[in-house]
Specification:
The complex is a heterodimer.
Chain A: H1 2-30, H2 42-53, H3 55-71, H4 76-94, H5 101-120, H6 143-147
Helix pairs in contact in A: 1-3, 1-5, 3-4, 4-5
Chain B: H1 24-46
The chains are: A mainly alpha, B mainly alpha.
Transmembrane segments (chain B): 25-43
Keywords (chain B): Membrane, Transmembrane, Transmembrane helix
Transmembrane segments (chain A): 12-33, 53-71, 78-97, 103-126
Chain lengths: 149, 69
């Protein structure tokens, strides 16, 4: 029973995060729904500057790529890594500053969901915990890239 | 002050922390999530004997100090 909850829970969270990020990213460029209004808060200044620097647009492209990878179950660990800076930034600029409880709750939930997915796919990240890592350059054997597919 | 309200009126109460009070993106995520679980349940039901992909197992040689040689 626990295994079933674990399995389908992870599937739900993966599809949820994939759908959320893909739609959020696509909506920025296609605007099929009105963009969420920015409220007056300290984190708002960060959003305005990131829009001016083009970081916001870049984050939306990352949302599309990462969201699609989670939704279509392709390169999921890579998608999680791509989306992590977006999720962390959204969490940090909203959770402590937003005056709207729904936004605080929503960004915190997405952050927790992201951490659960990272934990669920932990076997792809264990090699990063190697204390003494040796380089194995990609240019010595480029074929390893497509062999990994 | 946070509330726990929920109303099916097509609007989002940003003061509500009720998980059923969803924005468009949350609604899209939830729909994809529910659809994904239903698809997974159906695939599991109709393909009991299908060969599954196992999680990748990393070998120690990939991160050994002398693997570069």
């Amino acid at each position: 029973m626990w295994r079933a909850i674990e399995k389908y829970g992870v599937i739900f969270i993966r599809y949820y995060m994939g759908g959320f990020n893909l739609i959020s990213g696509l909506n920025y460029f296609l605007l099929f729904w009105p963009q969420p209004r920015i409220t007056q808060s300290t984190g708002n200044d960060y959003v305005m500057i990131s829009v001016e620097l083009g970081l916001f647009q870049f984050a939306k492209v990352l949302e599309i790529i990462g969201g699609a990878s989670l939704l279509f179950n392709r390169f999921v660990p890579l998608g999680l890594v791509i989306l992590m800076p977006v999720t962390v930034n959204i969490f940090l600029i909203n959770a402590p500053w937003s005056p709207l409880p729904h936004i605080v709750y929503s960004t915190t939930r997405n952050f927790v969901f992201h951490c659960i997915l990272l934990a669920a796919y932990a076997n792809y990240f264990y090699p990063m915990l190697k204390m003494r890592a040796a380089p194995q350059p990609v240019w010595r054997d480029v074929s390893r890239i497509w062999k990994s597919f | 002050m946070a509330t726990f309200n929920f109303a099916l009126d097509g609007k989002v109460d940003m003061m509500s922390i009720n998980p059923l009070e969803m924005t468009n993106f949350e609604m899209a995520g939830t729909l994809f999530g529910v659809a994904g679980v239903l698809i997974a349940l159906a695939l599991n039901h109709y393909a009991k004997n299908r060969k599954r992909q196992l999680p990748h197992v990393f070998t120690a040689q990939e991160t050994e100090q002398d693997a570069i040689e």
